[in-house]
Amino acid sequence: MKEDMTEERKHPEGELTRLADGTLPAERQADLRAQIQQSPELTAALAEQERAVTMLRALDEPAPAALRARVNELTGPATSRRSPRWRRVFVIPGATAIAAAAAAVIILVGGGAGAPTVPAAARIALASATLPAPTVNPNESDDLVMTAAGIPFPAWGPQKGWTASGARADTVDGRKVTTVFYTSPSGKRIGYAITDGAPLSGARGSSVTRYGVRFTLQQSGPARLISWVRSGHTCVIAGRSVSYAALLKLATEDERQEGASSQASVARAEYL
Amino acid sequence: MRRLDPTSLGQHLDALYRAAWALCGSREDAEDLVQETFARVLARPRVIRGDERGYLMRALRNTFYSRLRTASRRPQTGATLDDVQPADPRTTRQPERAMEVGEILEAVAELPEDFRLALVAIDILGLSYGEAAKALDAREATITTRLYRARQRIARQFSDEPPSSSPATSGSDTREGSGPERSLA
Questions:
Q1: What's the complex ipTM?
Q2: Is the alpha carbon torsion for A138, A144, A149, A150 positive or negative?
Q3: Contacts of A51 in chain B (CB under 8 A)
Q4: Is this structure's pTM higher than 0.80?
Q5: Which listed site, A78, A221, A226, B61, has its alpha carbon 20 to 30 Å from B161?
């Protein structure tokens, strides 16, 4: 592994590959980004890598139901009948199955005990607005006046095609979830939810790293959602009939603005 | 080393299906390939080292090659009515999206084999570079180079921009290790 990493330094295309998907060690990133900034060739090469990563990792085609059923037959009780040895692995005691089913219902209805999950936050982000749209912050035109956990919601505005159209404030399992809804000129709607407190569990799916931040892409029913952690709080952008690419663009744009305003990272500032 | 838990394999089904589609270039062949892979893996208890998904990638690849060998030995016949594929019977809420997924995965299937396997392992199945190297019996540095080339081709194929004639974007060779490193100290 170490030998391979050393070799990759001699062949920076390997490092570009890792930089594009967020797996390049942090200590190499600033150095490589400085080289990239000096070279239009490398800048173009990195952009290509990032474009491919976004496209490929956003693929969400599920297995067809018929295939799922056939695979379930292979992994299910029918298979266990072939061999007593397998039965021990496959058979779930009735009480356990009932408990699992009950837990699933609780999760579906309320998000489970303890803390809300990313899908639960996404369900709120897909719900109806109960508050009027917040206005643009007169002192900071990139932000709305509404904040959550100290994080301002972005004012994407007409130039980015998404205008704030409403908001809501909820409490789930004792945690405050604040959501702003945005609407596009074509009538599509997305919700941007920020949850107070520690990062939420339940972020499962492929991921893309931009500006040092890991964005997780996942499907929840007919909706797509992207989640990430900012300042220790989980942010979720969710929408129906909106592509992952569009959601990711908004999420990364928001992180880019955050990085620019806070100057939190030298590497991030160099990239900008 | 641990025993493979068959009940946990279902969680990999969607990713494995997309990986199979990218290997075969056809949705129908992908379904058959995934089913056969699961059947082989579950035919007897397995003991695995490391990641479950890496193990499945290796099994998928082996099954894919095995199917190719079998197909090449089968006598070739002319097309019949049975070969005509019916329209996709599945209803989809987003036909454009389904078409886009198909186009991308079929483009991956057109890549040279080594590039395709690296890309499928890392960007579609989500393996780490180390897991991919182990699953594909190659060194990590080789995997990253192949992945670089594979992503480059896919990005260019789906680019909205006209092809550039600059050296930075004109590479079409399949040689590993060529590319932007030439411009660096």
A1: 0.77
A2: negative
A3: 155, 158-159
A4: no
A5: A226
